[in-house]
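Hi U.,

Before I forget, here's the chain from the pilot set. I'm dumping it here mostly so it's searchable later in email.
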Amino acid sequence: MKIENMSRRRFLKTTAVVGGGVVVGFSLGGCSTSAPLPIDVAEGGFIPNAFLQILPDNTVKFYTARDEMGQGVTTGLSTLLGEELDFDPFKMEILLAGVHEDYNNPGMGVQGTGGSNSIHAHFEPMRQAGANTRALILLAAAQDLGVNRDYLKTKDGHVIFDGQLFPYGRFVQTAAGLKVPENTPLKASSEFHYIGRESGRVDALAKSTGAAVFGIDVDLPGMHYAVVRRSPVPGAKLVGYNRTATESMKGVTQVVEVASGVAVVAESYWQAKKAADQMDIAWEDVPLGRVDSADIRADYELALNSDDGLTGTDEGDLTSGFAVSDQVLEHEYWTPFLSHAPMEPMNAVVDIKEGWADVWSGTQGPGAAQGLVARFAGLDPSKVRVHQTYLGGSFGRRGTLTHIVEATQIALAAGKPIKLIWSREDDLRNGLYRPASLMRVKAGVDRDGKIAAWDAKRVGGNISPDTIKNLLPALFPGLGDTVIDWIGGMADGAFSDWVADPSSTEGLFEDYDHLNTRVTHATVNHGIPLTFWRSVGHSYTAFAKESMIDELAVAGGHDPVGFRINNTENNPRLQNVVRIAGERMKQMTTAQGRHLGLAAHHSFLTDVAEIAEVSVENGQIKVHKVVCVVDCGTAVNPDVVRAQMEGGILFGLTAALHGEHLIEGGAVKESNFHDYPILRMNEAPDIEVVIVESQGKPTGVGEPGLPPIAPAVANAVFRATGERLRSLPLRLKA
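Structure:
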C-alpha cells in the first residue's frame, strides 16, 4: 500500500468527488458467500463471476451492476468487459443486476449509481473480470483440444486453433471445473479493439422499439393503482380528510393513510388521480407555511453579511494577498431552487405476499430500495426481491426513494399489488430540490495578472444531512426511528455548526492558482427538502466562480483566455482545455450581433471549457452555438461522451435561461412545464464537442458538461450588452 501526504485543498477535492462523500474503494472480486447471486442460471450456463454467464450456445449474458438512466453506462461497462473478454458488447445479452454485495459501487461502498463515477470506478475491475474469464476459457480449450495453451488465440467470442474457430460456449463445461485465474495481465491501450471505438449504444434498439422496460411500464395481474395526496408545504402532517366521499367514487377500492399523506387506490390510474384531486384534506400549520421566496433571499442576505459561517478552507494570508492586488472586485451571485424534472416521473410497483416482497422500479440504488421495502413491510431484506428497470432520466432525483416507501405502505395495507405513480405536478411540488445559493466572491489580482487573493462565501441549505436522513432507513432497515432521528439531527448539527458540507462549496475555489484563499459557508435551512442535482454543488459554484474570473479579466484589461491560462499553471489539464477552447474561439466567425463567452470548470475528475455564441434581441437571450472542449481521460465510447456533454449543456441551459422555483406560503409555486419550462427544440443551439486525446484513466462525463454553460452564456451576454447578470435564470433588465 502506498500512502501519500496530501494538502488540505487536495483532500477536500478528493473527498468531494462523489457528491461530497468520502470515496472508499471496494473490490469487485469473486462472489461473496453471504447470499446467492440473483442470476437465473440457464441450463448448462457457466457463471465465472457476478457479471457474466456464458451458455453452451455461446450466448454471453452481462449483468450490469450500475443503473442505466440514459447516461450510457450499459454501453460503457459492456465495452470494458468485452474488450478483455474479446467479445463484441453488441452481441451480449445485457441484464440489469439484482441486489448483491458483489454489485457494490467501488467508489461508494454501496450498490448505487451516481457521481459520474461508473466508468472511472470500474475501468480496471470490469476489464479484469473479462480478462480472467478469457484466460479461463483458454485453459479449458487447451484441455479439451489437447493442445498447449500458447498455441491458442481468441477473436470475438471464439478460440482460434490451427485456423479453426471454436465458440467459447463449447468449453464452458470444462471451465466450470477449473479455478478462475486471477490478475490476468490487461491489454495495453494500443491493443484496444472496442474501447475508443465509435459506435452506437447497446440499448438503442430496445429503447427505440419500445422493448426496454421502465418502471412505469410494469404491469402485474390483479394490480391496482395508487395516487398520493401530500402536503403542499413540506413537513406538514395530515389533520383530516373526507374518506367516505372518496371511497364512493367510481373505481376506488381503498383510501389508505401513509407517512407522507393519503393514498387513493383504484382500478385505474385515472380513477385514482381524479379521486385524489377531489379529496378535501386539512394539513397542520407549520412555520414554513409563512415563508416566501423573498423571506428566503432576505435570510440569506443577512447570513452573508454576518460573521457567522464555517471555514471550509483557509490557506495563505488574505490580508497580504489583497495588499499586493492592483485591483479588487467583490460581487454576489444567486442561484434558485430547481427540480430535476426527469421525463419519467417517480413510480414503483410493490407486491407483498406469503412472506415475500417484490419491487419493480428504476432507481439509483437497488440495495436502498430493498432496505426500504424490508423496513416498511416488516421483512428481512433477504425476503425482498428487487427487479431493476431502466430509468427514464434521473439527474439525482432517483437517489431518494420516498415513492418506494409509499408504494410499500400502500401495498401492505391494501393486500394487493400496487402501482404508485407520481404525476408531473407531484414531482415538481412534492419532490426534492437543488438548493438555492447566495454566494459572494471577493478577489484581488496583482500587476502580473495573477490572482493574489480569493475570499468566497456561500449561504444556503446543505445536501448531505438530508441525504444521510434518507439513506439511513434504506441502508440500515433494522434501526429504530428514534436512532435514525438522532443520527439525522446530529448530521444537521454537524454541517451547520462544526464542519462545512463539502458538497455545498465544491468547485468554488479549487481550479485557479491563488495561494491566499478562504472559503466559508453559512447554513440557512428553511425546511425545503434538498438532494443532489446534476453536478451537485458545481451546478451553482461554477456560475459564481467563472463569472468572477471573467469580471477580473475584463476589469484588468486581460484577455479572458490568457487570464485563465496565466492562472492555471498548477492545473495543466484545465489549462489545456482552456488553451484549446481559445484556439477554437480565434477560428470562429460570428455573425453580426453575436458574441462569444467562455467558461471552464473541473468536476468529477474531468476538465471542460465551453464557448457560448450568443445574441440578444428585444431583451431575449438566444444561444446559437456551444463549443465544448472536454478532457475525460480515455473516451471508452466517444459517441456516449459527446451525447453526455450535449445533454449536460442542454440541461444546464434550461437552468440558465428558465429554471426557477418560487416559494409562496412554504409551497412550491410551479406545477408543470407551462410555468417550469424545459428548453425547447427551437432554443437548442448547435453543439460541437471536442474530445481531448488522452491515455489516462476515464473520468466522469455524465455531469461535467453542465457547470460551465451558465457562466459562459452570462459572459457572452456581457459582451453583447455590457450588462453583468449575476443571478440565475439569466434575465436582462427591462
